Amino acid sequence: MRKRSSRYPQPMTRRTFIRRLTGFIASHKLMTAIPVSIVGASGWLNHDSIALRMYAWDLYYPQLSPVLEGKCLIQLSDLHLYTLRISAERIAAILRKHQPDLVVFTGDLVSARADLDKSAAYLSALRTSPACYFVPGNHDYRYFSSSLFNRYTELIQESGWILLRNQSEFLPELDLWVIGIDDPSTSRDNVKLAYTPLLEESVTSFRLALAHSSDCLDFVAKYGADLLLTGHTHGGQIRLPGLKPFITNTYLGDKGIYEGYHIIQNIPLYINRGIGCSRLPFRLNVLPEITKFTLHQGTQPPECTILPY
Ligand SMILES: [Fe+2]
Questions:
Q1: 50 CA from centroid of ligand 1 (Å)
Q2: What ranges do the domains of the chain cover?
Q3: SS3 string of 21-89?
Q4: From the CA atom positions of the chain, what is the Rg in Å?
Q5: What's the CA-to-centroid distance between 234 and ligand 1, angstroms?
Q6: Span 204-231, pLDDT tens digits
Q7: Is the pTM of this model over 0.85?
């Protein structure tokens, strides 16, 4: 019988494929390790930049007005449209599912002048409640001339959002004040001015204070708030496993308080990690966040559940 010549290729079986692959990896460790590491790292960064989480908090207040029992508000922060890879439709679908009584945005919608043209469409899609409030962050000021900033504020309002810059508004149907503080991180905060309408009377209504950064906390503590919602830190945006963030850009962040719920100076404070990215177009170990707060009468400590989206 004629023997088959070894010059002819043998049919590839699963066993020979695995043997050849392991042989290749063994003899080309560095060559394979580099691209495998790059693919792995980019997959990790990609996941951490788009893996949206909803943090659903139940907050309890002994003196809560009966009209606020079970009412919920949703906070969005730091979208940074220029590098954002999470669509308005995806966020809007989450908002519609939870049917918030109030939606608040705590600054940094844009990250470039080119975002001006995107902002109206994005904000219109996110307007999923009759009451949507917007306070500016440092990036909302950074890229625009006075006239472009004027156009930007018009777009915000034409999209159905109420822009508060050191201003307050009372919602009688919720027995709630929304106190909108202008950006503290660029010293535009004038907390006294924002609280002016509340100073004229003894207020028993819920006081919801909004600011881009927690650096206004001393003044907010002076005037009082039942909840202060902030963003700006991005939770550090990039965190190596087991380490604290390198940058938080806030006074409290320097002391290790850069995300989540805290009671400081008698003010219930929430620091939102935000959704988008600034400077570097990715997140690492700091997932993007939407936060829902449901208010209850009671004395229990706050409770949080995390929902993946
Ligand atoms: Fe930001």
A1: 16
A2: 14-50, 53-308
A3: HHHHHHHCHHHHHHHHHHHHHHHHHHHHHHCCEEEEEEEEECCCCHHHCCCEEEEECCCCHHHCCCCHH
A4: 25
A5: 6
A6: 999 999 999 999 999 999 999 999 999 9
A7: yes
233 CA to middle of ligand 1, Å? 7
Question: What are the pLDDT digits (tens) for 194-206?
Answer: 999 999 878 899 9
- The Cα–Cα gap between 141 and 156 comes to 13
Q: How far is the CA of 139 from the centre of ligand 1 (A)?
A: 7
Distance of CA 159 to the CA centre of its chain: 20
Residue 140 C-alpha to ligand 1 middle, in angstroms? 9
Cβ neighbours, 10 Å, residue 33? 11
- Name the CATH superfamily for 53-308: Metallo-dependent phosphatases (3.60.21.10)
Per-residue tokens: 238: 């990039």
Cα atoms found within 13 Å of the Cα of residue 153, Cβ hemisphere only: 13
- The closest of 126, 132, 129 to 79, measured between CA atoms, is 126
- The answer to whether 135 and 182 have CB atoms below 8 angstroms apart is yes
